[in-house]
Amino acid sequence: MSGENYLYEWATLRCVPRIERDEFLNIGVIMMCKRRRWVRVETCIRPELLALFAPDLTAEEIESHLQAFKSIAEGNPASGPIAAMEAEERFRWLTAVKSTWLQTSRPHPGLTTDLDATFDHILTEQVKG
Length: 129
Hints:
By secondary structure, the protein is of the alpha+beta class. It has one domain (6-128). The chain has four helices and five strands. The relative contact order is 0.26. The model has no long low-confidence stretch (mean pLDDT 93).
């Protein structure tokens, strides 16, 4: 990329095993840049933390749901009509408030000259840290 600034939005993906307790474990990040028509999602499930936090869920169960999330975010045509939407519409749909065990934080804005480096930094700080 050049030295051009790009406005982006990002949110963490969260595992919320017991919604009534409002406790969560960060398991990934989704980031979008409307101008570049760019969406990126990565996940990192730490089985040792998951076992302590949500012993009834397995990493495999969570990963199967995350695959559908990723496929929509990436615009895979096999993922249905939402995947066919523009990048910002997919991002908005995926980060909408939900009452399920897979949720996202509220989106956060930022400005960067390097989307991938910024994404990697956020993923490390919010999930892998």
